[in-house]
Amino acid sequence: MSSKDWIEKDYYAALGVDKSASSDEIKKSYRKLARESHPDHNPGDPKAEERFKAVSEAYAVLGDEKKRREYDEMRSLFGSGAFRRNARGAGQPGGAPFDVSDLFGGGGGDTRFGGGGFTDLFSTIFSGGGGGGGAARPRGPARGRDVEAEVALDFTDAVRGVTLPLTLRAPGVCDTCHGNGAKPGTQPVACPVCHGAGVTTRNQGSFSFSEPCRNCQGVGTIVEEKCPECHGTGGVTKTRTLNVRFPAGVADGQRIRLAGRGEPGERGGPAGDLFVHVKVRPDELFGRTGDDLTLNVPITYAEAVFGTDLRVPTLDGTVTLRVPPGTPSGRVLRARGKGVVRKDGRAGDLLVTLDVVVPAKVSDEARAALETFAEQTPPAAREHLDARVRRFG
After folding, report:
1. Which residues contact 127 (CB under 8 A, 6 or more apart)?
2. Which of 321, 323, 332 shows the shortest CA–CA distance to 300?
3. Which residue in 194, 228, 270, 352 has the fewest CB atoms around it within 10 Å?
4. Quick one: 114 exposed, middle or buried, by C-beta within 10 A (0-12, 13-18, 19+)?
């Protein structure tokens, strides 16, 4: 993206958030919009592809605190009309609006103030006090972008830990030219316009300032014979497979960072990071609360009254729990050490909730037995409730 994009494009509107939105709100909105407009979900839809590119571009700026701060400062400055020029071309308040293209020359490429951010914009424009010829810095190594991926894990794999292959399709360095963009057997040559400096100096009214060379886009070199694989760009879209280790106890919604596994950097810069978002599929039997596993077990009325030895499953076997006589429905029994193993080697527990099942239909013999039981059983202790009921007659 160019510096002109930063002034003309409203990235907050692209993500549907306010300027005061938090980093989490921006990230949440981006992930939602990116899923909705991703080309894989909208095959053959050019409008969806454009929306996906727009929200990705917006998040690349607003998702980075430094870039977001520079973007806000620049938009505030130019949006306020702080730069104006009079009929003589001097940078003074008043007069016709300052033409943004006078600063950026309408040139393409990711120049962004010569690679130095918002602060370098002013050191470039006003170098030498308006009459000097200070030099802007050519573009140096740039860190690669971070990459995000989502992986769904089975419940058991998330609890125990697992290593899975993760296939990514993202830009990478061209293997044919090794990233320099030149045809094998040739090399990039110094730019004839900037003579390898990556910047040119020009006058604009009362100002004299340097800017990234438009001929070489600030790199300092040009490719005369382009690589047949990447057509001179130095990069191609690659499919790569990584073996990702998910630690034992990884939770649903957790994000795992793999340093240096994102997109490769430009001009020798470091690679970005890979962030893997974990989604855990629910299990048909077990639930999870922190490091504890949960399990609901139905028991009969007779088992609750007389007590029983209850054999229940765990993730790696079975365990026998003692149900004491007179156990009420909803009581929780604990099997220690049968939950999620923590990093320090200790494990959570298995929490078994007992659910006393009341049959919908009973036989005549069972009904007669229950009636006899009811006659011999003291009533439930609910005198405090009956007293309140009597108040209402």
Report:
1. 133, 134, 135, 208, 209, 210
2. 323
3. 228
4. buried
Q: In the numeric block, which tokens belong to residue 39?
A: 């080309």
Distance of alpha carbon 114 from alpha carbon 121, whole angstroms: 8
- In which residue are the tokens 């800017």 written? 211
Q: Among 350, 318, 327, 325, which Cα is nearest to 337's?
A: 350
Annotated binding site for Zn(2+): 174, 177, 191, 194, 213, 216, 227, 230
List binding-site positions.
174, 177, 191, 194, 213, 216, 227, 230
pLDDT tens-digit readout, 344-385: 888 999 999 999 999 889 899 989 988 898 888 888 888 888
Q: Which residue blocks in the chain are alpha helix, DSSP H?
A: 3-8, 11-15, 23-37, 46-62, 65-79, 100-104, 118-125, 155-160, 301-306, 364-376, 383-391
Rounded Cα–Cα distance for residues 110 and 253 (Å)? 34
pTM of the model: 0.51
- Residue 35 CB contacts under 8 Å (≥ 6 apart), including other chains: 41
